[in-house]
UniProtKB/TrEMBL annotation:
GO BP of this protein: transposition
Segments of skewed composition (Acidic residues): 30-53
Entry protein name: Uncharacterized protein
Residue spans of biased composition, Basic and acidic residues class: 17-29
Superkingdom: Eukaryota
Sequence segments annotated as region (Disordered): 1-53, 354-403
Length: 403
């Protein structure tokens, strides 16, 4: 059982005089803002631990090698050496431990460190760099970068940290609601949709905020302002429009799902087959006996990928028996959506995504030029026909105007 020790935080935010473990998170999911985000990068409902917790000694002893998988997740170079604490749990604990509180902006003013970029603005009073530097340096003491992929590993780590910081604050508000109604049965969904008054939030500050009352008050003022209320309602509306979840893979990244499947079966799993499985319910339709899609958009994305795949490779081609094709994914989504693949984002090398997007853009440009050329030729033929018709009338006209 984890021991929890009382913590006092310095006013600078990064330095601390005493330490405590970070408590268990309920739900185990990080979601982007209030939109009910689709991409969770957690590794399960585990405890996020502080840097001095004993179990981390096991991680240091193993020091697994991480290999980039897509733009925002890792896989283990040797799955058999997977440490007892996953990389996202370690990262979550470090982000909480080095949470800088309120940061000062170079342009003037200050705000809560709501985002990962804000960690780079908080200088360590002991001269060890910024809060972001401390998180990154400590993380790479627990794990190793894959040889030759050091820069890609750092890029993935920054993407993960960006998502985790956003989710950290998202979960903090839910925990405030949860503990405020301790004696009332409440699901996580109920807590997520419940808004409270400032005095109610102030009863339960998040552990990573500690005794920084100024920081927590600023957080509460944001949670209770009209702008947040509007954002909250927009998020509820988006979740209602989805008419179901986005996947059933839980909080485990696709990369680890694939590795677990490979360890279980001894064969390399098909990426599309796994993606499709994660978009369907586990319980078949009692009437038809077929799988049921989680929501209409899941079916649209999968069928669109299959359609484009067959257009490229032939009607007999089976995407569940071939490698995942990022170019087909780009075509299925008619380009990148906000810089991401519409289907299968996160399981493709970002460089391949960019190449596929550029190739699709080039194809669209060529098609546009062909259509323009064909249109111009048609206009020329029409003009020539009109000229020929006018010339015929001139030849048969009589001087007196009769025909």
């Amino acid at each position: 059982m984890m021991m929890t020790r009382r913590r006092t935080r310095s006013t600078t935010g990064v330095g601390r005089t005493r330490r405590e473990g970070v408590g268990r998170r309920r739900g185990g999911e990080d979601q982007e803002e209030e939109g009910g985000g689709e991409d969770q990068e957690e590794e399960g409902d585990e405890e996020d631990l502080s840097e001095d917790e004993a179990p981390l000694a096991e991680v240091l002893a193993v020091q697994a090698v991480l290999v980039p998988y897509g733009r925002s997740s890792f896989k283990y170079e040797d799955p058999s050496q997977r440490p007892p604490r996953g990389y996202s749990n370690i990262l979550g604990g470090l982000l909480r431990w080095y949470f800088p509180g309120i940061v000062n902006f170079p342009s003037g003013g200050c705000d809560v460190a709501w985002r990962w970029a804000h960690y780079s603005l908080a200088e360590d009073p002991m001269g060890r760099g910024t809060a972001a530097d401390l998180v990154v340096a400590k993380f790479w003491k627990y794990f190793k970068r894959a040889e030759g992929k050091e820069r890609a590993c750092d890029d993935v780590l920054h993407q993960l940290a960006r998502k985790r910081v956003t989710g950290m604050h998202y979960e903090a508000r839910i925990q405030c609601v949860w503990h405020a109604d301790r004696f009332v049965h409440m699901t996580k969904e109920d807590a997520r949709d419940t808004l409270m008054q400032p005095w109610q939030y102030m009863q339960n500050p998040p552990q990573y905020v500690g005794k920084d009352d100024r920081c927590f008050l600023a957080m509460v003022m944001w949670w209770t302002c009209p702008q947040y209320l509007k954002k909250h309602e927009e998020g509820k509306k988006k979740r209602a429009e989805m008419r179901g979840g986005s996947h059933i893979q839980g909080s485990i990244p696709l990369s680890l799902h694939l590795q677990n499947e490979e360890l279980r079966t001894g064969a390399k799993p098909n990426v599309f087959a796994v993606l499709k499985k994660m978009k369907q319910r586990k319980t078949p339709d009692p009437e038809t006996g077929s799988a049921v899609w989680l929501n209409p958009q899941c079916e649209t994305r999968c069928t669109s990928y299959v359609s484009k795949f067959k257009q490229k490779y032939g009607e007999e081609a089976n995407p569940e028996a071939e490698d995942f094709d990022p170019e087909v994914a780009v075509l299925a989504g008619e380009g990148l959506k906000h810089g991401r693949l519409w289907f299968g984002d996160g399981c493709v090398d970002p460089a391949k995504e960019e190449m596929a997007a550029k190739e699709q853009a080039a194809q669209e440009q060529r098609a546009h030029m062909e259509r323009s050329s064909e249109y111009q030729q048609q206009q020329n033929r029409t003009a020539a026909a009109d000229d020929a018709s006018a010339g015929t009338y001139e030849l048969v006209d009589e001087p007196d105007g009769s025909i």
